[in-house]
Specification:
Strand content of chain A: 15-25%
Structural class of chain A: alpha+beta
Helix content of chain A: 25-40%
Oligomer: homodimer
Shape of chain A: globular
Distance between the termini of chain A: 24 Å
Order of helices and strands of chain A: HEEEHEEH
Number of helices of chain A: 3
Radius of gyration of chain A: 15 Å
Number of strands of chain A: 5
Largest sheet of chain A: 5 strands, antiparallel
Chain lengths: ~150, ~150
Amino acid sequence: MKQAGCPLCESAGGDLVFEDAAFRVIRTDEGGFPAFYRVVWNEHVPELSDLAPADRALCMEAVVCVERALRTHAQPARINLAALGNLVPHLHWHVIARFEWDSHFPAPVWAPARREAPAAQVAHVAALRPLLQADMARQLCTLAAASHAG
Amino acid sequence: MKQAGCPLCESAGGDLVFEDAAFRVIRTDEGGFPAFYRVVWNEHVPELSDLAPADRALCMEAVVCVERALRTHAQPARINLAALGNLVPHLHWHVIARFEWDSHFPAPVWAPARREAPAAQVAHVAALRPLLQADMARQLCTLAAASHAG
């Protein structure tokens, strides 16, 4: 059921990396964070606890697929995971590769910036995205297929 | 295995609400956020994807127990979930009840404050904690027992 006026019901919300019936993964272009993805649950539900147990597990395993592809290909210092939704109460997970050189590290991306992200490093990670996203989509596809079979 | 110098290996990290072999739930006293909890995985692992699938599921279901108790008893505007660990790379989930009157809403708690949280509202939510935490512990106990049985 789509919710009128909800930006995640009315559009993909970013560059689509993978889409299945239950969820999709998008890349979002937040300046200085070259590997910032979101796992969006397609149905308009506000909180993780609104999902049935099997759907919660699928949603979190999708988050883990994104995290794993980021760790393998971009070798970040950390992965940040967050489901906030204070402005858009439609369940979506931020999955963000964090680097020691990024504009906010070690602060959360929502805190004030500490420095300018170096363009060369941002470009280096951005160049990894085609391979990274192909691997991410492959893992997500396997996950989605297993969820259909189960 | 404990990691020397890690604050979540060397201490509980807050007021203990529930502890099992694999994880614990603590309440943290962050000014103006009267219902701010953390689910801490007891073993020192940095990221969610470092856990085995069954452990990931247990960890996330513990997060959901905390979320559910917060929603039932405190009726917040939103629940915020986050695993960041930029400063303490030991897997822990922030589970935060957010209210429209809180100091940062609708911004994340890591953004600059927008107002002072009204003391009466903070005190009202704080007064709900005994019952809320008893229910939270009961749910977590059931979850932990099922994980031992399974």
